[in-house]
Amino acid sequence: MGLSLNARAALVSMALLAAFLLVWQLAVGGVGKKAEPVDPAYAALVGATATTGQSAMPGPAAVGATLWGHLSDPFYDKGPNDKGVGIQLAYSLGRVLTGYGLAVLVAVPLGFLIGMSPLMSRALDPFIQVLKPISPLAWMPLALYTIKDSNTSAIFVIFICSLWPMLLNTAFGVANVRRDWLNVARTLELGWFRTAYSVILPAAAPTILTGMRISIGIAWLVIVAAEMLVGGTGIGYFVWNEWNNLSITNVINAILFIGLVGMLLDFMIGRLQKLVSYVE
Amino acid sequence: MSFDDPFDARRSLKAGGCSCGHHHSEAEHEAAARAEQRATAADEHGRLERVVSLAVVRALFPHEAGRRAFLTAVGASTAAAAIAQFFPLGTAIEAFADASKPEKTDLKVGFIPITCATPIIMAHPMGFYAKHGLNVEVIKTAGWAVIRDKTLNKEYDAAHMLSPMPLAITMGVGSTAIPYTMPAVENINGQAITLSIKHKDKRDPKSWKGFKFAVPFDYSMHNYLLRYYLAEHGLDPDQDVQIRAVPPPEMVANLRADNIDGFLAPDPVNQRAVYDGVGFIHVLSKEIWNRHPCCAFAASKEFVTGSPNTYKALLKAIIDATAFATKPENRKEIAAAIAPPNYLNQPVTVVEQVLTGTFADGLGTVQTVPDRIDFDPFPWESFAVWIMTQMKRWGQIKGDVDYKAIAKQVYLATDTAGLMKELGLAAPDTTSKGFEVMGKPFDPDKPDEYIASFAIKRT
User: Fold this and answer.
1) Structural contact between residues B361 and B172, judged by C-beta atoms closer than 8 angstroms
2) Which segments in chain A show pLDDT lower than 70?
């Protein structure tokens, strides 16, 4: 075998994709139930699903065609309720990055504090455990009611949902810095701030980044749900709007976009994580 | 110009003269009035100046004797100049001229993508907002709870709501109590009971025991009409079937997935179920109560009183659009205007079938019902009373209800009638009328007796 492992993996991936597309095409391409012949005046008033029994599920070719449509004109703006997919993704990314950025600003310092103090760690633990598993959609009515602005509410929901993994990971990483290193710092008579900055932070950085990586994934999951609820703009609104039109083709397209952007976000934090990891 | 006051009970009405008493005959009076009208139109600013300075002089000298003494002492023109010295007449005149201009022209109006919102939506692409000097953005919204919250948050200046919602919000049922108003009904009729295609042989409601139904919202005409219809057929809507609130866009998907057996929903949802071959139209809502109200144009009391000119211009645009939509010959054009992704996001043929009333019923027949949906902006106060009787009947509100007072406070029938007349439309003289629901007459003066007359109720 002259090919590298990577090349072979790529080949298998391609083969899997091709098989998937083939199965998909075969699954939807077959003629559905034979419908009774209908009056042409009546047939003109209803869709193909009702008259020919054709499956409502689009094939890969139809999805590919609309995908091309979206990619060739991603930034059109035909009024407040109809914008290109590029603009929608930009709105979603803007919200995610704002909410996530705020969460980083709060979670990392707070996590440090909790990690360095066993007392705070135990005192705050029950609150964190209760707040952590709450679904974004459960926060939404409360946020809309108190914040009184749908865009800020969406950002708040992202903030609150991406906060906990970062907080817990930071606290865990800080609490588990090796005793030896802290003892060395103490021997060298480093101040509190110096210890935190040049010993604990580098030691805990990989764990903190892991928390950040989990959080960005959650933030991206949350935005779609939040935007489906508050509407207006964003990729979540796009999915809802196409659902409203029962356009499965466009929903599949949106799923693809959401997946790709999520992968990109994860990849970026992954690179960052590699930068700070170290070998003992 | 004539300051002929219609409220003046002592106005001279002497025979042979004219209505103002200054001319010898009515014809002469009219000729003078016309000449005056031409003059005032040419000199609008001069007229304003006169009106405002008159008001100022009257305010400065409340007593006639004092004013006369001052005027004879210094002369009229000196007096005017003297007043202008210390009173900013120019500013006052400008402020007076501004009084009829909208306080703000950039507005946001929320809507749910259903054909009930036709006047609100079409007023945008067809230019009715622009015609009345407004720059309105119509924003598509995901559901009734969200549209309520966004309007209460003032993200929207006004919104498309279900006609029971302003009543519920005002009474604080299912929401914080905030005085709300409903100056116009969007549409009448236009709903239907749609059943899953697998039930096409179960046309008798008595065979519907155990069915799961969807309605758009708890406080909706759909909920009340469906409950009424079921109860008239002997089914208890709380015991024999299940009724749940599902946002309209999700209804067809749920019907296809077999999560529900049917729904009483706004269009285009019913027609879309037929279009996709998953349901059939069992009965149009007009057969339950012909010319029933459905959706509404609603705004907070604060908006109505805080920016009265904007409110007036907006309501005028809506009434104007509604009047245009009433004409059957305009319906195709409207369907094409509101079907694109920016508005309803539906196939044009679906919207067209709803608006023109020539539609496929899902059972292989093409039906023609021109008034399947119709448009009439007048918010009859008796509609509100009926809605409150149903709220009480199904236990949404408890205790004594001051039906008449709440109806009057929320359904601004008098405002609507005034603006309808301004636009040259025929407006009713009363604000209350009786009607029949499934053949049973409703008397708005006896709401409690009406509730008591039902066998199935939750009171």
Assistant:
1) no
2) 1-2, 29-38, 49-56, 280
CA distance A260 to chain B (A): 25
3-state secondary structure (DSSP) of residue B195: strand
Q: How far is CA B60 from CA A62, B24, B66, B150, B271, in A?
A: 78, 36, 10, 47, 67
CB count within 10 Å of CB B428 equals 14
Closest residue in B to A149 (Cα–Cα): B153
Burial-class residue B363 by CB neighbours within 10 Å (0-12, 13-18, 19+).
Answer: middle
Residue B428 to residue B73: CA distance in whole angstroms: 54
- pLDDT at position B52: 62
Contact A228 B142 (CB under 8 A): yes
Residues in chain A closer than 8 A to B365 (CB atoms)? 42
Helix, coil or strand: residue B144: helix
B139 forms beta bridges with B110
Q: Which two tokens stand for residue A12?
A: 């298998």
Asked if A80 is an interface residue toward chain B (Cβ–Cβ < 8 A), one would say: yes
Question: B283: exposed, middle or buried (C-beta count within 10 Å: 0-12, 13-18, 19+)?
Answer: middle
- Position B345: which residue type? N
Spatial neighbors of B345 by CB under 8 A, at least 6 apart, are A82, A241, A242, A244, A245, B113, B339
- pTM (two decimals): 0.75
Q: B339 Cβ partners below 8 Å, 6+ apart?
A: B345, B346, B347, B348, B350, B351, B352
Among all residues of chain A, which has the CA nearest to that of B249? A244
Interface of A with B in 139-158 (CB under 8 A): 141, 144-145, 148-150
Q: Among partner residues A38, A79, A141, which is closest to B342 by beta-carbon distance?
A: A79
Q: Tell me B291's DSSP state.
A: T
pLDDT tens track for B143-202? 888 888 888 888 888 889 888 888 888 888 876 778 888 888 888 888 999 999 888 888
CB atoms within 10 A of CB B139: 20
Q: Which residues contact B151 (CB under 8 A, 6 or more apart)?
A: B110, B158, B159, B161, B298, B299, B300
Which among A38, A228, A230 has CB closest to B364?
A38
Cα–Cα distance list, A191 to A172, A194, A195, A198 (Å): 22, 5, 6, 11
pLDDT digits (tens, 9 = 90+) for B383-416: 889 999 998 899 888 888 888 888 888 888 888 8
Mutate to test the interface with A, among B115, B141, B146 (most CBs of A within 10 A): B146
